[in-house]
Amino acid sequence: MRRFQEEDDHDNVQGLFPPAFDPQFDVEAISGISNLGVPPEILAALQGMGNQATAEDPGAMMAAIIKMQQGIMETIESMEDTTEEDSFNPADIFAGMAHLSGGTGQSFGSPNAAYSPEVVHGANFTNDSSKNESETPAYCSPNDFNSGMEVQSGPMEVQSDPGADMVEVNLADLEVPSGGKQNVYCPPHESATKPPPRPQHPTPTQEEPLEFVKLVIRFPRLIFGCIFSFCLVITVALYVKVLSKGNPFSALGKELDLHDIRSVQYDSLRMAVYETAVARNEMRTSSVVPPRQSEVAESTYWVFEAQNEQNVFADPQSIASMKDTFDIFLQDEDFQEYCVLNPEAECTPPLSPLRMYYASSWDSTKVQFVIDDLKDPKNVEKINSLGWCYAYGQNCDKAPANPRQQDIDFVKRLNEDVNNIMASWDMRGDLIADYNQATELAAYLMETDIFKPAVDFGYDKGFSTENLASKYSRGIVFWGSPLEKNKDGTSEKNRRKDVITGSYLDDMNARTEEQSYYFMKILIDDAILGIIVTDAMWAVVSLTLIFVWIRFSTGSFFLACAGFSEILFSITVSWFVFSVGFEIEYFPPQNALAFFIVAAIGADDIFIFFDAYNDSKHEPHILVDLETRMSWVYRKTGTSMFVTSATTSVAFAFSLISPLPSVQSFGLFTAMVICLDYVLVMSLFCTAVVIYHDRFEDRSQYGCCYPCNEIVPSNTTKAMQAWQTSSADEDTKRPFVSHFFQTKVAPFIKSRINAAALAAVFGFWLYIAAQSAVRLETTQQAEQFLGNDHPIQKSFSILNNEFPAAEDDVRLKVFYAWGVGEVDRDGVDLLREPNNYGKPTFEDSFDFSKQCQTDLATFCSTLRNDPAYEDSIKRKNGVGEINCFIEELAAYSVLGNLDDCSYVQSGQWKKEDWQVDPADLPRIMEAFLDEKSCFDENGRQTIGARYSSELGWDGSTMRYAAISAQTEVLTPFGVYPESVTRKEYDQFADIADSLGQTVSRSCQTPVIMSDLDRKFVFMNNQAIYAKTAVQNSIFGVIIAFLVLLLKTRVFHIALFASMTISSVLTSCVGVMVMLGWELGTIESILVGILSGFSIDYIVHLAHEYECSEGDPNKRIAETFGALGTSLFNGALTSMVASLPLIIFCELQFFKKFGIFFLLTISFSWLFANFAFMTLLAQAKIPVERSGWKQLGVLTICTFIGFSIGVRQIYVWTRQQ
Fold it and tell me: Is residue 1053 a contact partner of residue 1104, using CB atoms and an 8 Å limit?
């Protein structure tokens, strides 16, 4: 027999036999086929078919015919290897079958035979040679197939025409014994227009109904009510236990890696400072307290931007507008009770250039003399070289040797003139007439080292003698402490906050309309919380859009409410278990992202479950009863959603490997929410669908007004009746989207030409995206947490980017401490106890000896005066700004007081025997702490207040000693790129490793270097975020690969899915770079969750493809038909829900998440449907489960190749 060389030939032959027909032929005519050379095995099968045709039982006859068909094909296959070539042609059977009906032109099969567009069923063949060859090829509609057709000898094919409902009929490699070419034609048949009736008793499924489903069918309302009530009770309990206590989110900026050196040193110093201060205050017996409102407790920063011109000092109106801002406070008599008071008990004027423009007196002539002097570059050079020494008596060792006396006199005279001019800068006068002269004076004073600190604070980077214009200006209003005590015992912080919000905040907000921006540390948390609440309202809008689309897709308010409740309950119940059950108190703001993630995944699951329920109407073998039907739905969707939910949950739970509690909390909480969402879909929503089936289906148009009694007959019975009376086309027709994907997209991606075009498009895009993605770098600018136009963000951005470093700027303090031990972390669990960072420890070996004191003083002097540290340490009055209590302690030891500040500041005490015997410390420290510091500009700050963090005196013992230096670049309130902060950190760490070791030897303890504003901790967090983003992306792909491999044991499905997920990752990161994003904190978090969030659609399709039956082409069509609508609805819902976040949210975290959400959903859906499915369609690899050993070898080889490939792509793209 001729062998079938191709699978398509085999299918074409099999397709010629109808799965069910009612033959009307003469059994005796079978003997007429024997002369055609048909083997006896085939004849026996045909004889059996003829015998069954006379049976009275139509069902038995149909079964016999199907069995006969299968027997013929098995016989043909078994004869392939034993029959000689060309000794038997299967076409002989089909040609001879014409005799079964008595000749030509009569139907072989019933006109009602089932039709498939893929194959030809029930055809009748003749040897009529009277047909014209020009009629080849013929096209036959489904209704024409059983009306008789002719065949031709020679090679022919059976294939689908791309046009409408017509099939081009040619039989592949079949030869007609009569010889000669004959045309194929399908004359119309009058009975073909009638819809074929269905069998009244289809074979039921052999699977037993699930016990849970049987229980749900029996008591749907009871079970639904119990589940709903239970979730509702848990939600109420969540409110009582967690939400009613105030803001449920943990404070921002508290997270750290417990074991990182930066975190250890930060907590060690922070807790040591606190414990020592508490002990010192408890031990103190002195009644001396700082003068009322003598210290700065809070500051209000104001930033001004030019409205029309490029100069805020261009006209009187602009200057007056800035003055009006400060008058909010200065013109209020009550402000006297909260401002910082000068020695005359008057409010200190704001730090602002307006002090000059509103001077109480202005000598234009003297000012012009000064300007003229400074216009000469030689005079400026004299001032800069001699000024500090001969005007202030400082840094004389740096002054030129033997200067001319006339130069010295010039410097002294000019210094006196400038000081006289500045003496009236008190902001108590009217706007000076010649305000442009004041602007010019400020520009020339900034050319000098000794006068620059008086004016440089209020002008931007572009201001100079060549450009007398400043687009921006700034000022600070100071709030004093300690306040006068009140009777109700309210803390100073709350009193200050109450008066600001009650008396000034409205006027402050009104000023922002005139391009004036402010921020206060005391208000920033409330402002951010208010923004979060506002953005959360837009999140509610997003969730509402999801509800609306669920209602539209299901056509039922009841199901929409049930589905939406399921999504909300997955959040509230998970939150309760998370916070109360697991006792996890750390709940960071990024956990709010779980709301959107579960909304997207939950909506997908709802659509998949409900679409499967609708599809069950077309499965007659399960329409026996509702139990069987819902069990089929449960099995079909349960496994699919379990695989996707498990994969996504594991991907998020992988975040537990991160050392940061915020990442751990987010990953664990989101994984719990996704798991519970799956449980509630399979329980609460499943029960809701049963209730919908019993009471609401086909009544949705009536709403709630229609009686909700049970529908009789049931909708399952109606579905069975509809199937029995419908045609095949009517029965298999799916919803529009699924039908489109099944009938249009599936054939489209099966075409090699179309697949090549898709490969070119995706390949080109991935090339561009990969080149963009590899350029992703950590951010080099201060990170933004609000939009560019928000007043708070405006103030931060302008302060960080538009002003030079001024001597009046407050910079970050970096501490060097000796005597502090590493914090004890035993028993610390930040997830359960977010405020327990450990216990402070002190080094028992710390020795505050005279040599230790000497080395500390040397350390201070070196940092203050060594030019090597000018780029690291902020300069003020020509020297480094250092907080060194040992210098004032030394002067106090010599003089017994600090009345002579010139003696202290000049360092004359160094010539004396100043070291303090440690045994004398208890005697002198009490009075020393109450002395006024000589380094305080106002002369009112006490030693205890100025050195509260540096002085480790606990009332009886010197527990530690610390020196602090202000950085040149970093500020306490700025958010800087990791690279900028690390550069500063490395510089100060080098100081600890070099200079600090000398002090360590004499004080007999190692040095701890840290700041107290968490900048170095945050720097490490940024690095962890970036590392976690890469780790989670890689492991997300690996997890998806392994889960699919373990579930399906089909290697190529898992491999193709992983490749598609990698493509989605590449695309999203590439677009991030194209949008100008850099890898900051927000971006790192988003990339970290990308892999866990992008796998949903791909895993759904992969699982459905594996579970489908048939060859790859049939699996593709079935997968699209089953999931096309569900995934489209899920994607569309998520994309629409992201729009309010993108358009309206002010927090960059939510806005960028919205953009990221949209990108991830879009790319996931596109790549899943058009890349992943195309790979499966073109590969045509049979779905065969592999052995574990084979899978292991393939997996190892894949990982090795993947690693090498990724590295080579990265190197190549970087070279490009």
Answer: no
Look at 39-48, 444-453, 858-867, 932-941 and tell me which has the smallest mean pLDDT.
Answer: 39-48
Q: Omega before 713 cis (within 30°)? A: yes
Contact status, residue 1128 vs residue 1079, Cβ threshold 8 Å: no
3-state secondary structure of 814: strand
- Res. 72 pLDDT band, cuts 50 70 90: low
- Asked if residues 459 and 450 have their Cβ atoms less than 8 Å apart, the reply is no
Closest CA to 273 of 928, 1013, 934, 922: 1013
Whole-angstrom distance, CA of residue 506 vs CA of residue 1108: 65
Burial of 1115 (0-12, 13-18, 19+ CB in 10 A): buried
- The span from the CA of 615 to the CA of 733, in Å, is 10
Under 8 Å between Cβ of 1000 and 818: yes
pLDDT in tens, 988-1034: 999 999 988 999 999 999 999 999 988 999 888 888 877 877 777 77
CB burial of residue 1185 (10 Å; 0-12, 13-18, 19+)? exposed
Burial 1079-1090 (b: 16+ CB within 10 A, else e): bbbbbbbbbbbb
> CA 887 to CA 891: how far, in whole Å?
6
Q: Alpha-carbon distance 1048 to 979, whole Å?
A: 45
Angstrom distances, CA of residue 1028 to CA of 1023, 1035, 1088, 1153: 9, 10, 6, 17
Contact assessment for residue 187 and residue 135, using Cβ atoms and an 8 Å cutoff: no
Contact assessment for residue 1076 and residue 778, using Cβ atoms and an 8 Å cutoff: no
Residue 1063 CA, chain-centre distance (Å), reads 17
Task: Print burial letters for 301-315: b (CB count within 10 Å at least 16), e (below 16).
Answer: bbbbbbeeeebbbbe
What CA–CA distance (Å, rounded) separates 920 from 228?
Answer: 73
- Percent of the chain at pLDDT exceeding 90: 23
Phi and psi of 817, rounded to 5°?
Answer: -125, 140
